């Protein structure tokens, strides 16, 4: 794996892991940007490999975390579960990029 590509699965894991701690609201805006950009990167690369199911999954992740029209789940506990599942998805497809 190329070190440059690793940032696209490592960055969302790190930023979502830090987000499990109590952080100011601005941090969550930054995390939305990072996760959305990385999800789009995964979707594009998986599209090239014709892994359409995960193109849709990463497309959904990009929409869920988008910083332009934020989706508010209103409970930190719900976001914690969503972040863990999202992190597992990124980690499981790290070798696909």
Folded structure, characterized:
The protein has 97 residues and is mainly alpha-helical. The chain has one domain. It is 72% helix and 0% strand. Helix 1 runs antiparallel to helix 4. The longest helix is centred in the middle third of the chain and has 24 residues. It is globular. The termini are close together.
Ends distance = 9 Å
Number of helix segments?
4
The main sheet comes to: none
Instruction: Note the run of SSEs as H and E.
Output: HHHH
> Based on helices, strands and strand pairing, what is the structural class?
mainly alpha
Query: Number of folding domains?
Result: 1
Topology at a glance:
Elements: H1 3-18, H2 25-48, H3 52-64, H4 76-92
Helix pairs in contact: 1-2, 1-4, 2-3
Descriptive key words:
97 residues; globular
Task: Please give a quick description of this structure.
The chain is mainly α and about 100 residues long.
